[in-house]
Amino acid sequence: MIMVNITTMSGFLLVGFSDIWELRILHGLLFLAVYLLNLAGNLIIIIITTVDKHLQAPMYYFLKHLSLLDLSFISVTVPQSINNSLMDDGYISQGQCILQVFFFTSLACSEVAILTVMSYDRYVAICFPLHYEVIMNPSKCKWAMIAVWLSGSISGILYTIVTFSMTFCKAKIIHQFFCDIPQLLKLSCSNDYLAVIGVAAFMSMLAFICFTSIIFSYIRIFSTVLRISSAEGRSKAFSTCLPHLFVVSFYLSTGAFAFLKPTSDSPTAFDLMISIFYTVIPPSLNPVIYSLRNEAMKEAFRKLLLGGQFISEKTVLSCC
């Protein structure tokens, strides 16, 4: 690996993966394949939900924004990691690191917020179907998404400011494949990180409130679904809700574990795997979970590939 003087460099050195050249190449190629699949899957969702006038229900509107978030989220860390692996150079400038921390934090917080909004949308659709169009009208959906993006941006600004207001006293070596905030805290002087902990505690409280809201929504959803007399109706409702609950639980649990566990000077393969679980896997799984299980989306995609007209309104309504 190309080494720079770590005592005088202005940026940081990312040393997340193996020092063996062949393994770094393998990592770079695997990340490239995952990134391209993620790019294709999320772009397809964005295109279909934009151009098909029948896929304009709130569920698809939020799904489109989730795909945009996923595409942006994975683009913050993975391309840089691919470049570092294939170029055999782990250096990242301080400016790049600042931008990475800002966008990573902003998009992660926005992801939690939109998953909360989507759970509320499913709650209203299943528990109050007759009032769904009134409660989830286009104006409210628009303001909900503005709140999602604003909350993420504000969180990212706060976290970035307090993180890079620290004085980095130690060698600027980050044992990760991206500018990981817990790793940055290890490089700071004695009490410089207290402001970061305060901001992190506040954001953790907001994440807990979001998670509690999601759990409350699904308790109400499941209690309503279990009262449905039709087995087919129960199956359709569960097939819609359970994948969303899985995504939320997987994303929040791995992220919380990674940020709450003590950081070590020599991270193990398990530590790196956990970081992959909350940075790479969820954005890649969402297109599969939310599209391949949705008949309206699959039919629209088939029509798009064949160059035909988009699905009829009757088909969309039957799938929703």
Structure keywords:
320 residues, mainly alpha, Rhopdopsin 7-helix transmembrane proteins, 3-stranded mixed sheet, 3 strands, globular, disordered C terminus, cell membrane
Describe the structure.
The chain has 320 residues and is an all-alpha fold. A 3-stranded mixed β-sheet has the order 2-1-3. The chain is globular. The longest helix has 34 residues, at 94-127. 73% of the residues lie in helices and 2% in strands. The protein has one domain (12-319): Rhopdopsin 7-helix transmembrane proteins (Up-down Bundle). It contains 12 helices and 3 strands; from the N terminus they run βααβαααβααααααα. The chain has helices at 21-51, 58-86, 94-127, 132-135, 138-163, 181-186, 194-225, 231-260, 269-279, 281-291, 295-306, 313-319, and strands spanning 12-14, 91-92, 173-174. This is Olfactory receptor. Belongs to the G-protein coupled receptor 1 family. Residues 41-290 form the G-protein coupled receptors family 1 profile domain.
